[in-house]
Amino acid sequence: MSTLSGKIALVTGAGLGIGQGIALELARQGATVGVHYSHSADGAKETVAEVERMGGRALLIQGDLGQIQECRRVVDEAVNAFGGLDILVNNAGVTRADKFLNISEAVYHEVFNLNIQGYFFCAQQAVRSMLKRGGGSIVNITSVHGYAGFPRHSVYAATKGAINAFTRELAIELAPDHIRVNAIGPGLIEVPRYEHLANYTSEFGATLVPWGRPGLPKDIAPAVAFLVSDAADFITGQILYVDGGTTARLGLFWEQGDEPQ
């Protein structure tokens, strides 16, 4: 497939999990890809190597997107290397799960600085380049936690709700400049950190998702590739939940056939 042929993309947090899957899919569809990472150097190098094995072009870019100046530098590295930018996928983020009353100032600032401040200033710098190219597309990776509540995720959910609002507002502000802004909200997606969750198994994850299985990074990547493609030219300001039906299900339910008397 070459639906993104000639397009230049930057994917943040592309060293593992969802970001890695997105970077590889954009490359498969013909895009040149900037592969950003913060700490996952080995995974990011694997991403670049796989893109090159496919005959594509990729650039490895390291940076701490919790720092505003680093957001600008990372975007500028991609722009300077490739001559511009058509696509930004804001994916780099952090999850910190704990009881609301246990959340410290340090944890609060860590999560907000990366999850929403990082998105904001990466987008701001990317838009400067997109304006010179006559348009572009931004996809923000949000979460089902921005849609509904779940225990121990107060800070994380707050950032994802902010991302949703930011997506809608930016879509309207940038529409006259032909820059589309959308968001993808993953549900339960098995990424490397799940390996360290106590008592988690794929079989257990399957019981939590109406579709009957946990999601994988490859389930998210095609949705992102579609939204940044010309086929989605009339789509902006939308939040697409890729969650196996999780957000569609009523929280209070009983097994089929177990009708109340």
From TrEMBL:
It comes from the Bacteria. One of its GO terms (molecular function) is oxidoreductase activity. Belongs to the short-chain dehydrogenases/reductases (SDR) family. InterPro entries: NAD(P)-bd_dom_sf, Sc_DH/Rdtase_CS, SDR_fam. It holds the Pfam family adh_short_C2. Keywords: Oxidoreductase. This is Beta-ketoacyl-ACP reductase.
